[in-house]
Specification:
Elements: H1 3-34, H2 43-56, H3 62-73, H4 82-108, H5 112-117, H6 122-129, E1 142-144, E2 147-149, H7 152-167, H8 173-185, H9 190-202, H10 206-219, H11 224-232, H12 240-252, H13 261-273, H14 277-293, H15 300-306, H16 319-334, E3 340-348, E4 352-354, E5 360-362, E6 366-371, E7 376-379, E8 395-401, E9 404-410
Antiparallel strand pairs: 1-2, 3-6, 3-8, 4-5, 6-7, 8-9
Helix pairs in contact: 1-2, 2-3, 2-4, 3-4, 4-6, 4-7, 7-9, 9-10, 10-11, 11-12, 12-13, 12-16, 13-14
Length: about 400
């Protein structure tokens, strides 16, 4: 074929690709590229053919799709561009498929060579794709069937962080800049902040990781795995009480018990550390019942912990102790909130109420405080160790969460 014939063939192939023939068209044009006859003018339509082939070929092997991406990266194209962004979405999809395939192969005990064939590095791909080519549209979330779908940037950070963590790779300066911008852009994305916590851990910044997880829990307080992850960063030697309180919040958050075995084992370990063996045995018995119900084998860690329990120990439910220390976890989380200066503007004297059993109960003194914007908040000063007799006009620093005062102190 002459060059004009090739250009027309590829242009027509682009239309065929959009109609569902992308894989066939791709293989035809790839042969032209392999013999060095791909016209410069045809790079753009071939780029789109590669995208459609990737999109229509999710069932193809990882190695086949990797070769498609390499062909794309060797094209001379204008960037940033929508096509370049669409290719990135396919690379993100390929990394996820590659991770799933490797997990299955490892579970089957396949040889290292077979695993390497299925591997795909999103980190190396992004270096060639160039993170500076992200467009405004890549930051935009979309609505699909009435549901909000994460932006390309959010999806990229999730999978990129996964590769960093799985391979203990430190992030590049460019990626750190991206995730900082993303955290400021998507303040409602708890998972994104949790991923940043993992990145901090990779770089040895444990305090920053703890601060990130505290923010995460303020956004998503019902996710047990965030409480558990935070607890894992608390030193058992120096702060066992806080660690146990966080673990208690984890185990009492919504979620099936089948997913909380490690949390209960951590609780048992804490009780053993404190030599509170009856409480440790209670947690271990609970785990054993869940495993027996599901016909699972007990883990080596369970067997190691149960061996630490003295003979003749009787299990005791630690619920009453948990209730006494739960406030430690809440105070630790609320510490991340900013303080707001308010003024005491109303004093409500204690009143006597009758409960449903006919008993008289004296209600404590309540204060109303007002901030500079005129917003009012109510709380009982005694709860925070503040004298209830202070005069109106007193300056009080408070922390607000869920429109409630969760911390208060004198200014």
């Amino acid at each position: 074929m002459t060059e004009p014939d090739i250009i027309k063939f590829i242009s027509d192939g682009f239309e065929r690709a959009k109609k569902g023939e992308a894989l066939l068209v791709y293989s035809e044009v790839a042969k032209i590229q392999d013999v060095g006859k791909l016209p410069k003018k045809s790079h753009y339509p071939f780029g789109w053919i590669i995208y459609y082939a990737l999109h229509q070929g999710h069932s193809r092997s990882v190695i086949y799709r990797k070769k498609m991406l390499m062909r794309y990266l060797n094209l001379s194209l204008r960037k940033p561009h929508k096509l370049h962004s669409m290719i990135l979405t396919e690379a993100i999809r390929l990394y996820k498929d590659s991770s799933d395939a490797i997990y299955i192969l490892r579970k089957k005990g396949e040889a290292r060579e077979a695993i390497e064939q299925e591997s795909f590095s999103l980190i190396r791909f992004l270096e060639m794709w160039n993170i500076t080519n992200l467009r405004e549209g890549d930051w935009r979330r979309k609505k699909v069937e009435g549901k909000t779908v994460l932006s390309t940037v959010e999806k990229l950070i999730t999978q990129y962080t996964s590769e960093l963590f799985n391979n203990s790779i430190k992030p590049s300066r460019e990626f750190m800049g991206l995730i900082v911008k993303a955290e400021n852009t998507y303040k409602d994305n708890a998972a994104l902040i949790a991923q940043r916590a993992e990145i901090h851990l990779l770089t040895g910044r444990e305090k920053e990781a703890v601060d990130c997880l505290k923010k995460v829990i303020l956004i998503s307080p019902s996710k047990f795995f965030y409480w558990h992850r935070l607890a894992s960063l608390i030193d058992m030697e120096n702060n066992l009480r806080l660690r146990m309180a966080l673990l208690y919040k984890a185990v009492t958050s919504p979620g099936e018990e089948e997913f909380k075995g490690k949390i209960r084992l951590d609780l048992a370990e804490g009780w053993i550390k404190a030599k509170s063996y009856p409480q440790a045995l209670f947690e271990l018995d609970f785990v054993e019942q869940v495993y027996a119900r599901n016909k699972w084998n007990l883990s080596p860690r369970f067997l190691e912990l149960i061996a630490s329990i003295p003979d003749m120990t009787k299990a005791e439910n630690p619920q009453s102790i948990y209730m006494k220390i739960a406030y430690c976890a809440e105070d630790f989380i609320f510490d991340a909130l900013p303080e707001l200066e308010t003024t005491k503007t109303y004093h409500k004297e204690p009143s006597v109420t009758i409960d449903k059993f006919g008993n008289k109960r004296k209600q404590p003194v309540a204060w109303r405080v007002t901030d500079a914007s005129g917003c009012n908040y109510w709380f009982t000063p005694e709860r925070f160790g503040i004298s209830p007799t202070l005069a109106l006009g007193e300056k009080i620093l408070v922390k607000i969460h869920g429109e409630k005062v969760v911390s208060a102190r004198l200014s």
